[in-house]
Amino acid sequence: MALRIFVTGPAGVGKTTLVERIAREADRWGYIVGGMTTREVRRGGRRVGFKITALDTGEEGTLASLRGISHLLGVPFGKYVVHVDEIERVAVPAIKRALVEADLVIIDEIGPMEYKSDGFSKAVGEVLKSEKPLLAVVHRRFVNRFRPLGEVHTLSFENRNGEFVIILDEIMKELKGVRG
Fold this sequence. Notes:
By secondary structure, the protein is α/β, with parallel strands linked by helices. Helices cover 36% and strands 30% of the residues. The protein has helices spanning 15-28, 84-101, 118-129, 143-146, 160-176, and strands at 4-8, 33-43, 46-54, 60-66, 75-77, 80-82, 104-110, 134-138, 151-154.
């Protein structure tokens, strides 16, 4: 069975930072890393949305923005509007390319906003059926759905550096083909 590592934890604990550090380290060792990450967009100290970035091309899109004038352009989600078209323009192709080209697939994050896109949920399903190693950030609401499919690591401020070392070690063993 392919390696599946799911990272979860409270907002701001460093989940995206951890997967980005793992991606840089794998890249440094010559492995191809693909997929996508999600980051907050802040203005004036206030979160105003989220952006998605393809790891292979650096292409960016808007995952969600505060409701307002753009509310007609997406799917309402609490105080945000989810831009399904942007998920399908940036995230879905990045995940599909990673399935073909990458040694390690990263999906940050698998959550309720991203699942507003049928294409995203199908792409996640394709990765889970593949033999590619996966490192994914999973929203707390979805942890129990993914727990049976791999290892779940819950980050805290106290353990995040230790978890980075543990996860990096597991991924590098898998990529080097020496996992037991």
